[in-house]
Specification:
This protein has a domain of 119 residues: Nuclear Transport Factor 2, Chain: A. 19% of the residues lie in helices and 41% in strands. The protein contains 3 helices and 6 strands, in the order ααββαββββ. Strands 2-1-6-5-4-3 form a 6-stranded mixed sheet. β4 and β5 form a beta hairpin. It is globular.
């Protein structure tokens, strides 16, 4: 097992990488999360999230306080569920017909640990991504950096937080009607 025991980031609130997270298992989880979103398997994708989850796509760089600044997406668990219900109806016109998507993940790093409400420590992971979207309006490349917080529940991993920083989030964005 490939385990990392030291933090590679000095972000505020980020402690050492918690023990017990296997690199291969974490990478497979992230790859599965991307594939489920790409394939529109919304039930399986939604099942990956914790009840206190946050999904954030900031505007204008890394983002500051999402409660005080505009975001492309800033969803709690309830809003994630509502967004998925809208996609399931087939009546989300920005996605009629649905985009064909494929994501590539790279540069996966264990960044450190963060306390969670259960009294345990979540693993914070960073990864670069490139998403290729093909739609009737054309093909678009979406690139950026994801930050994930993974939480252990028994033998499974769950997603407690996902932040997607698009490289061009300081410019007007075309329709973003899919899961990024």
């Amino acid at each position: 097992m490939d385990r990392v025991t030291t933090a590679v980031s000095t972000q505020p609130g980020l402690g050492p990488v918690p023990g017990g997270f296997d690199r291969g298992t974490v990478e497979q989880f992230l790859y599965r999360e991307a594939r489920l979103a790409d394939e529109g398997d919304y039930d399986a994708w939604e099942a990956l999230w914790t009840d206190d989850a946050l999904y954030w796509v900031p505007v204008g760089g890394e983002g500051g306080d999402p409660e005080q600044q505009m975001s492309v997406i800033y969803d709690n668990r309830s809003r994630i569920s509502t967004r998925l219900k809208q996609l399931r109806t087939g009546k989300r016109y920005a996605q009629a017909p649905p985009s064909n998507l494929r994501r590539l993940l790279s540069n996966i790093e264990f960044l450190g640990g963060r306390d969670n409400p259960d009294g345990d420590i979540d693993l914070e992971v960073g990864a670069n991504f490139l998403a290729i979207e093909s739609h009737s309006r054309g093909t678009h490349l979406w690139g950026g950096r994801n930050t994930y917080r993974l939480r252990r529940r028994g033998d499974e991993l769950l997603l407690a937080y996902k932040k997607v920083v698009l490289v061009d989030n300081d410019q007007p964005l075309p329709t973003l009607g899919f899961l990024i």
